[in-house]
Amino acid sequence: MIVSVARELGAGGRTVGEALASALDAPLLDERSFIELLSARSGLPRAVVAERIERAPNSGERLMADLAAASAMLPIPAFQYQDEEQLVDFVRDIVLDHARRGHVVVVGHGGVSMLGWRPKGVPVLAILLRASAAWRTTQLTRRYGIEASDAHARVQRADDLRTRYHKHYFDGDVNDCRQYDLVLNTESLGLDTAVDVARDVALRRARDVAFKGGA
Q: What is the topology classification, in CATH, of domain 2-54+86-210?
């Protein structure tokens, strides 16, 4: 079973993901682990992967990619402008490879849209974590000991990058609640309660999957 956790920055994605991975005795695929795995699979430096995962290419990069495709004579490193879509494919392959061996918890990277909504024959529990920008700003301020203005700017930038990433690669809206099985507002519930609810649902789904003989 794949547990896919889509989240807004500061809404508790890492906390919920770690709790679910522990409860299911499953590997956790989050930004840090994906950087390592994608670097190994693609041959790209970790720093390059870190700059390019979960974001869409900007207009300048798209133009250069088009030019590079039109003329092989251009001195443009191939990975710099053309490998974002390959990274998305690698993410999907890594997730499905883990799912074939058992449960896996995935944080971010397009949620169920990255999986083609629901991969045939692979059970998926899709979760979305949301909270107001003000609350998420406060969480980042406390967690990292940074100024509120800096935290707010990070929240805004992350929201924008993830919105454009989802639209560019999956032609969808990451916050469209209709594509999720469970939507939790970590601000109104509190993070501890959100973790408890997500864990309970995940364990129930895992039991159902085991009873039906699924992965």
A: Rossmann fold (3.40.50)
